[in-house]
Amino acid sequence: MYRPNALFRISLGISQQQMATLLNVGRSLYTMYELGKRNLPEPVTKKLIGLKAGMERQAIQLKKPTPLQQKQWRKHLEKKRAENKNRRDILAYHISKAQDRQQMNDTRENLVGMLKKRASKKRHEIETVKSIAVAVTEMQRDWMRLEELKRTLNILEFERGDLEQRLKVLEGG
């Protein structure tokens, strides 16, 4: 099973407890992140990205790479930057669609409110209100998905900035 956080931690030669301490989380929580049982929250993800970037900067500064190594590293970072841009573009599309659904859902919610106010004891009106109430639950799920997409986009923006900094360090500027 591919576990990038575990591979990174092992490459540093540190224990789960030490990594958890670096990230300011408990060891058991870090273990769940590593096993994929819990998603990394945005602040922890940013710390992990920063830690990885710091280690890479340190490696570059400790050992002056040859021009060929610099070229390979630059190519690797540019590829990562292109992948990041692609992921951000895809997320932006999904966010746009989710915002469109959210506008539709807001209209539905207003309709539910109006129907509830004037709902009589007629069976068909009560059934309509019930079916729209189910749609409101779906709206809440859409809203949560939209917020998750926005958080992911923020993480990708942070990662993009980090990649840009690493390219500048590599180019000596």
From TrEMBL:
SUPFAM superfamilies: lambda repressor-like DNA-binding domains. GO terms for molecular function: DNA binding. PROSITE patterns: HTH_CROC1. Residues 9-39 form the HTH cro/C1-type domain. This is Helix-turn-helix transcriptional regulator. It comes from Flavobacterium silvaticum.
